[in-house]
Amino acid sequence: MSLGQRVILYLLFLLGTVLFLISGVRAGDLFSVAGAACFMGAEGWAVVYLEWIRERDKFDTVHRRSEDQRAERG
């Protein structure tokens, strides 16, 4: 990995960390983990992708449940 690539990945990691600290946005987690995974190579990206899918599915499930509960009440 070239020096330029490492710098870009490090900046992604820092951006994710700052986003997470300021707002607690889940995207901050994703950027932070993705930046760290870049240093681990292809295996790291696979782990990040699978984690992202799992988090997305959790969010969709919770969101769907709250919509169902609102529909039952309304």
Structure description:
Helix content is 89%, strand content 0%. The longest helix is centred in the last third of the chain and has 32 residues. It is elongated, with a radius of gyration of 16 Å. The mean pLDDT is 69. The protein has one domain. Helix 1 runs antiparallel to helix 2 and helix 2 runs antiparallel to helix 3. It has 74 residues and is mostly helical.
**Biggest sheet layout:** none
- Radius of gyration over alpha carbons? 16 Å
* Run of helices and strands: HHH
Question: What best-fitting shape do the alpha-carbon axes yield?
Answer: elongated
User: In terms of structural class, how would the helical and strand content be classed?
Assistant: mainly alpha
| DSSP strand count | 0
User: Approximately how much beta-strand content do the residues carry?
Assistant: under 5%
Taking pLDDT < 50 over at least 5 consecutive residues as the criterion, the unreliable ranges are none
Q: What's the domain count? A: 1
Percentage of residues in helical conformation? over 70%
Mean pLDDT: 69
Number of helices: 3
How far is it from the N-terminal to the C-terminal residue, by CA? 56 Å
